[in-house]
Amino acid sequence: MTTTLTATELVLPVAAVGAENPLPPLHNLNETHHVRNLDELPAELADNIGYGRLGSVLPYRLQDGYGRERADTPTRVVVLENSRLRATVLVELGGRLHSLWDKQTGRELLFRNPVVQPANLALRNAWFAGGVEWNLGSTGHTTLTCDPMHAAELTAPDGTPMLRLWEWERTRNLVCQLDFWLPVDSAFLFVAVRVRNPNQHEVPAYWWSNIAVEQSPGTRVLAPAEQAWHFGYGQRLDLIPVPVHNGFDNTYSMRHADAADCFFEIPAEQRPWIAALDETGTGLVQTSTDRLRGRKLFVWGENRGGRRWQDWLAPEGSGHGYLEIQAGLARTQLEHLRMPALAEWDWLEAYGAVQADPAAVHGADWAVARGAVESALGSALSQSTVDDRLTQWRTVADAEPRRLIGTGSGWGALELVRSGRSQLPGTPFSVDTLGVQQDPWLALLDGAMPVGDPLDPPPATLVGPHWLALLDKAGQSWSAAYHQGVARWHAGDLRGAAQSWRRSLELAASPWAMRNLAVVEPERAADLLRQAVRLAPGVAALAVEALQALLAADRAQEAAQVLELLPEDIRGVGRIRLAEARVLHALGEHEAARSVLDNGFELADIREGSTVLAQTWRLINPDLPLPAHHDFSMTGE
Fold it and tell me: Domain DUF5107 spans what residues (predicted)?
């Protein structure tokens, strides 16, 4: 059988991501990966951790408009298939490798989530579990994870069809290119990755390929390392031995009680690979060319909170859930690397099945276990073959796509128009992709920012010195001043941001400038946000921030008045219900507060690592144990 490429649709139960949050993300990123023992770490590791941390996902907006109701939805996919493998790629959802089916053994090599259920784990909030996710940008799940990508067919070096995906990542202004290549009769899917820095300055770079696989009590994760950096959500990064530490074998995913990251310390002379093998010694192996050296095991843990997260992310998944094996540019996921101006980095990844002697794989001798996998991998796919495939791929890396399959955003095209740069070979950002989201900024390039109705949400703000300079020349309007403020906030000029938002309010009363001013003037936040909700009571995110500010200021009665302003559909939003329970408790209406938590209440966008549900339960029901459905703890506490 020759290799085929088919663009088709797959019907999946999907909870739609929904509309973007109209409020710019001005609050600090709620990132769980903070390291408090930097002074104990090697200098290079500590330096990489301290370098390049993202403060905001601007110019993106948050994706938090989803719920927990799913409907069968046709989803565009591309299927690459040969005699041995069938790979399914979700081109509309970050290019996720949704499935890798091994036709020889009749088994799925990945954790193929039967649903698409967003949850609050990504940099922009919405994220879903399963398959292989391609993470470019910064610590955390990529800004592109729930967005469509540009997609096209072209010809691989061996004449077979190849799938290319590409997009412009806007927090770092880097270009991502993914080429999926399945040679005839190959037992491995190859994914060539190229990241380009088109800027005239250094950029912090970050990449991790996150690979979900099913787990069972007999699943063991192996990598060519004797030590690993352990991060257990206690904000410490510690070097521990592999496989046994503190009396348990940390390479068996289901022996971890709590959620944990284990970053394997792979020696420089060792071929980089990672595998997850079941009790028969069979499973998925991932290897790569040398640039992608980091390898990681992630587990949710087997405590009640960890099991709750598994059920939350994959409500119809397998009984034992999943683990993740990951591959990255740095040795830990807490680091960013320095990518020089105009640099291009590329590498090749390979995904396929491996079978090793189960007695060796699960034996007590770790060197023998690793050696069994290395031997099996070497027989199936040598390192020289992987390196040769990368060399071959480079001959088509700049080839122009010959058949478009899907369209991503118009932001790359806008950036090329603004900067006057030429097209990047192989990844065209055509002016045909410019759309309504880019229209206001095209107008600004011509010297005028559209004004708009101050009660309508303004477009997402583009940031950076070039856009701020254009906004400063755009004339006096509430909208220009509003966007000036967001761009100044992003540049760290909080005083200038506040001045711009005050000017915007002088020109027109808008809830958007009021809200932004509340972020930089916390002493006025409750009053500003309450006034903003009066102007825009149908915006859930605005109501949530107003309720939180009023509760923090011990103004529960005014918070109750805000609740009365909200339309019925907004009152049902999870974070509004959570705030309502706290308001009722603060007003002494304890039974009513309990009923909010008892009556099927769900917080659809509860954040990874958040204990807000548990805290609210204990506040309102101090004498009752925390129900399992409210327990999302990461550490079993």
Answer: 56-335
Q: Which residues of 59-72 are buried (b: 16+ CB within 10 A; e: fewer)?
A: bbbbbbbbbeebee
Alpha-carbon distances of 582 from 149, 259, 552, 564, 592, rounded to whole Å: 41, 29, 11, 15, 10
Ramachandran class of 45: left when φ > 0, alpha when ψ lies in -120 to 50, beta otherwise: alpha
Helices (H) and strands (E) in the chain, counts: 18, 27
Name the token pair of 613.
């549900």
Give the whole-angstrom CA distance, residue 133 versus residue 519: 33
- What CA–CA distances, in Å, run from 97 to 418, 528, 561, 611? 33, 45, 47, 31
What dihedral do alpha carbons 481, 485, 491, 495 form, nearest 10°? 120
The residue type at 120: N
pLDDT of residue 517: 98
DSSP assigned state of 625: P
Amino acid at 107: R
Say how far residue 253 (Cα) sits from the centre of its chain.
Answer: 22
Look up residue 295 and give its two tokens: 């390898």
Give pLDDT tens digits for 251-297.
999 999 999 999 999 999 999 999 999 999 999 999 999 999 999 99
Question: Which helix (H) or strand (E) segment is 203 a member of?
Answer: strand 203-205
Q: In sequence order, what DSSP letters do the residues of 451-507 get, joined into one string? A: ---TTSPPPPPP-SHHHHHHHHTS-S-HHHHHHHHHHHHHTT-HHHHHHHHHHHHHH
**Token pair in block for residue 66:** 């989803």
The residue among 196, 143, 194, 161 whose CA lies nearest residue 409 is 143
The stretch 520-535 carries a mean pLDDT of 97
- Say if residues 535 and 505 touch (Cβ distance below 8 Å): no
Q: Measure the CA angle with vertex 547, ends 543 and 553; round to 5°.
A: 145
pLDDT in tens, 291-320: 999 999 999 999 998 999 999 999 877 788
Cα–Cα distance for residue pair 231/229, rounded to 1 Å: 7
